[in-house]
Design brief:
Length: 684
């Protein structure tokens, strides 16, 4: 086996997230946050990847053979690993995090653990705050079909032993009700403190306490949770005609009613209740996944913080940039030299400031931008709206196929069109994943100069505080001229632009990467120093993996820093013994992509929007941009070296922590990055 399946590799990544929840070195509420991330990730995995495998299983055998797919075996392996991880997740929650909370005098109680006084308080709270929010549906012969919302927790009520002697003693009823988390204002209820002891209860358990009063006609009321995940794959790539916006709107509507991908259920759920739910929903046994007593652990993002700073990571306030001005013109600063922005260590407000400046500068005539994922209250789009209303030519390439963000993108696309902006939607078979901003300004000498911002991350101020990304501000004509060609192509996809500096998919990115690796192979065969260092979110493309294997066989040193999916298997005698791999999971989500090639002593450094996945190389517009400024290139390399030598948060391919050797000092890359940039700010 020369490659690992994409899905099993992704599950390894989620296992690293779970490791952070297990680590006693991570602040307590951050550990709960990692549990929430793990849960949210797994939901998306079922909605997209497991649903895709199940669709493949339903294909004809001949079709599967042509595709080279063995989905039944893959699905079996994936579900076995998911089950193992869910068991570990439960142990992590029950045996590690609950006791750790207790040590801090925080008690997340179950209904059975309430004292008489707490139970009385909870019963009153139920009557006053919760009861009116409930609307259970009876699963009986009058109900022909039951629709369950995607990613929503439901409580199943199983009623037995009627108190009315006129009713047959074996009479049973099953009801189902959506857990009213949003209407209640959250998943958790704080009970009154008792001295230093603090108590929290799931909303689920508040309802369990109140259930007997809700159904007084029955002596036994069992309350258990279920949750459905639906197939979320839009399959837009297969659509080649018609109005794309209408297709997206239609697909969004279908998503809520997509095929069930997983019904997660409490193993204590009575068989009669489970049978009734299956019958009324049409869910089959293959979609059933045994879970725990509570579902939607992503709700732990809203767990009370008790105003205890020590329960969170220490604050790392965004740093002022060392070469960009805090006030005054950013365009003027960019006209003088290139500047690198490192998010979230330095603030995203430099990007929004630049857009606001461009919107109000009378000399700016045009702004072009790619919008892949934007914030729900986007300052970026608000600046573009201002520019359009002031008569500037605004071109926005809005990606309608950015999974799970289509709603926000549709909303802002409509706003921009109404303001007079030229909104471009990419063809159905092609996503625009590049992160580009281009500003055209008429200078004092009456020439038009272009200013660009290239980035690895989205124009999204909300996620910019969570993801690590690099961005380049530049007025270098070698780069801005080619950025303009990317936008020309997006305006008219019939063109075939040429690039000398940028590596652009779906044009020359793949061939350029192959050529760069091949050059290293030639150097190695001559006995010269040859290496490739890659920092990626995902490495999946078989062609490039084979090229890296060939490089290893030739003696090229290949270092991989991969956060998520990696289908390449490193360190194997005969084909990958010169390849090493590590991945880092820490307080920020690693998102930047960096490609480094020795190139005969003239090292080439690219920063990119593209992971090494087939879809990124062949079916997306992606841009890898070179760092031409020598000082900035050294800056990128230094930050990359911190990741290469992390021995605190780095894991190897098998998810084992990479620990300090001998007299090595501990080095945590994200912490060291912040400290180094802080010194850099003072030094410059």
């Amino acid at each position: 086996m020369k490659t690992l399946s994409r899905d099993l590799s992704w599950l390894r990544f989620n296992a690293r997230v779970l490791q952070e929840a297990q680590s006693p070195t991570v602040p307590l509420l951050e550990r709960l946050r990692f549990l929430a991330i793990f849960s949210s990730n797994l939901d998306e995995f079922f909605k997209v990847r497991v649903a895709t495998l199940r669709r493949l299983v339903k294909l004809k055998k001949k079709t599967r053979a042509k595709l080279g797919e063995r989905p039944k075996r893959q699905l079996r392996e994936v579900l076995a690993e998911v089950y193992r991880q869910q068991q570990e997740f439960g142990v992590t929650f029950r045996e590690l995090l609950l006791p750790a909370l207790n040590v801090q005098c925080i008690h997340l109680l179950s209904e059975a653990e309430l004292t008489d006084q707490q139970r009385a308080w909870t019963a009153t709270y139920f009557q006053e705050k919760v009861r009116d929010l409930l609307s259970p549906v009876v699963l009986d012969d009058t109900l022909h079909h039951l629709f369950l919302k995607d990613q929503t927790v439901y409580l199943a009520f199983h009623l037995r032993q009627p108190r009315d002697r006129k009713v047959a003693p074996d009479t049973q009823r099953v009801l189902l009700m959506e857990l009213p988390t949003k209407r209640h204002g959250g998943r958790f209820v704080r009970l009154p403190d008792e001295g230093e002891e603090r108590y929290v209860l799931f909303l689920d358990d508040v309802i369990r306490v109140g259930a007997p009063a809700l159904f007084p006609a029955y002596q036994q009321v069992a309350v258990n949770a279920v949750k459905l995940s639906r197939d979320a794959e839009l399959d837009i790539e297969e659509e080649v005609s018609g109005n794309l916006m209408e297709k997206i709107r239609s697909s969004l509507a279908k998503r809520a009613t997509g095929f069930p991908a997983r019904l997660l259920y409490d193993p204590a759920l009575p068989a009669e209740a489970l049978r009734a739910i299956k019958q009324k929903t049409g869910i089959g046994d293959e979609e059933l996944v045994e879970g725990g007593r509570y579902h939607n652990f992503r709700d732990f993002f809203g767990f009370p913080d008790f105003d205890e700073p020590s329960f969170r990571y220490p604050a790392w306030p965004a740093l002022a940039h060392p070469t960009l001005p805090r006030t005054g013109s950013l365009l003027a600063a960019i006209s003088r030299r290139d500047h690198l922005l490192h998010l979230p260590y330095e603030g995203f407000d430099y990007v929004t400031r630049l857009l606001r400046e461009a919107a109000t500068d009378p000399a700016v005539g045009a702004i072009s931008i790619t919008l892949y994922r934007v914030a729900s209250k986007s300052k970026v789009v608000k600046a573009l709206l201002k520019a359009a209303r002031r008569g500037k030519q605004v071109t926005a390439v809005v990606e309608l196929k950015a999974r799970f963000d289509e709603d926000a993108n549709l909303f802002w696309a409509d706003k921009l069109q109404r303001a007079g902006a030229h909104v471009i939607f990419t063809p159905p078979e092609l996503k625009c994943h590049a992160k580009l901003l281009l500003i055209a300004r008429r200078e004092a000498d009456d020439t038009v100069r272009e200013y660009a911002y290239f980035s690895t991350g989205n124009f999204n101020e909300s996620t910019s505080g969570l993801y690590t990304d690099h961005g380049l501000f530049t007025a270098d004509e070698r780069l801005t001229r080619e950025a303009a060609r990317v936008f020309d192509y997006l305006r008219d996809p019939r063109t075939a632009p040429e690039f000398a500096q940028l590596l652009v998919a779906p044009f020359g990115l793949r061939t350029s990467l192959n050529a760069l690796i091949d050059y290293e192979i030639k150097q190695a065969k001559k006995g010269k120093e040859a290496y490739v260092i890659l920092k990626l979110n995902a490495l999946e493309d078989r062609g490039l993996i084979d090229r890296l294997y060939a490089a290893s066989e030739a003696g090229v040193r290949v270092e991989l820093i991969v956060r998520g999916i990696s289908c390449l298997i490193p360190g194997q005698p005969g084909f990958s013994e010169h390849i090493s791999q590590r991945g880092i999971v820490d307080r920020y989500l690693e998102h930047s992509r960096v490609y480094v090639f020795a190139h005969g002593g003239q090292e080439k450094v690219f920063i990119a929007s593209a992971d090494w996945m087939t879809r990124n190389l062949d079916r997306r517009v992606e841009v890898a941009f070179p760092i031409l400024d020598e000082a900035l290139r050294a800056e990128v390399r230094h930050l990359l070296d911190l990741h290469r030598h992390d021995n605190v948060k780095a894991r190897d391919f098998e998810n084992h922590f990479i620990l300090p050797k001998d007299e090595e000092k501990p080095l945590r890359a994200q912490e060291a990055t912040y400290a180094w940039l802080k010194k850099l700010k003072r030094r410059k």
